């Protein structure tokens, strides 16, 4: 037909989704339909630069709504789906786990079921892909001597968030095994970069420093996370979408494990250079707060399979991308100041509402 294909991106107005949508429109010959409910975490401003792009369309809607999702497939006839819509914040999942079951588990099921019906009606095209974006948190917590997570690591989710993502991964797997739907799942480590909602650690630290507020460090600060620049994650997602084998899972990580304390101190050092405070060193703002209940101690990814099978490798080094991220927040004050109405940044520690 000579027409370019249409890809549906769910959650495209969120942090990773927006980075992915921009990347697709920059680098791929595909139309994008962003399907997003615009919850507290979704933000149309993240897609502002595409407002005049004739090959991008925003559709507001809920992945938990079977009619809206069926309509989405019928109307846009996609050749692939990149599924990122989710409730994504561990602390919120501790406060209200039900929303995580509804969106991450039931919403993913609704999307899979609509994709299956559509795919069967189209004659089961072999090149259709349902790419499910998931997390390394499904594997649980590593002890200091454990080897990093791999695709074969047993699932052992510990937070309601991780449990809901694990359940969604299992439904994705079942739709391949039982019905043959061509699915691929990626399990990625902690992302950072532009448009990350300020409830997550890295933007929390940057904005607290810029506003002269306490920088909350949970527990002893010795928990380890494996950090990846969001652009590298998006490249991995697109590689898996393009070349991943149906039914396979791919663990994505850039090999940057850091304790929270190390990471926060590195950020403070970058901020002391780029946005010094006349009142003193930024590290003086670091404030220990009560630990997250059930806080996983250590995550780390062994990305040998994506490197070998998909030819993927991260293009950014940790120090440079972290500094680039700090600069992005410095240069996009209006973006995050507007979010202050939805999130005042004063929550410290976690636990239940009102604590
Ligand atoms: P985010 O919270 O920034 O964005 C989520 C988006 O989904 C928002 O735009 C929101 O409006 C939308 N959404 C929520 N509920 C919806 C619903 N019912 N219907 C339609 N849209 C809905 O999340 P993120 O950090 O960009 O994460 C994106 C995906 O990547 C998630 O599936 C998450 O589990 C996964 N992931 C995130 C990380 C990370 O470090 N942030 C790491 C690995 C995997
Ligand atoms: O203020 C804080 N202080 C602090 O010490 C916050 C917000 C976090 N932390 C700690 C908790 C974690 O050990 O920093 C670490 C990172 O916390 P988050 O940014 O909340 O991320 P995490 O819980 O590791 O989950 C993230 O990575 C995997 C994303 O939110 C998930 O969506 C993703 O799947």
TrEMBL record:
<keyword id="KW-0456">Lyase</keyword>
<dbReference type="InterPro" id="IPR020904">
    <property type="entry name" value="Sc_DH/Rdtase_CS"/>
</dbReference>
<dbReference type="GO" id="GO:0008460">
    <property type="term" value="F:dTDP-glucose 4,6-dehydratase activity"/>
</dbReference>
<dbReference type="GO" id="GO:0009225">
    <property type="term" value="P:nucleotide-sugar metabolic process"/>
</dbReference>
<feature type="domain" description="NAD(P)-binding">
    <location>
        <begin position="8"/>
        <end position="324"/>
    </location>
</feature>
<protein>
    <recommendedName>
        <fullName>dTDP-glucose 4,6-dehydratase</fullName>
        <ecNumber>4.2.1.46</ecNumber>
    </recommendedName>
</protein>
<dbReference type="Pfam" id="PF16363">
    <property type="entry name" value="GDP_Man_Dehyd"/>
</dbReference>
<comment type="similarity">
    <text>Belongs to the NAD(P)-dependent epimerase/dehydratase family. dTDP-glucose dehydratase subfamily.</text>
</comment>
<dbReference type="InterPro" id="IPR016040">
    <property type="entry name" value="NAD(P)-bd_dom"/>
</dbReference>
<dbReference type="InterPro" id="IPR005888">
    <property type="entry name" value="dTDP_Gluc_deHydtase"/>
</dbReference>
<keyword id="KW-0520">NAD</keyword>
<dbReference type="InterPro" id="IPR036291">
    <property type="entry name" value="NAD(P)-bd_dom_sf"/>
</dbReference>
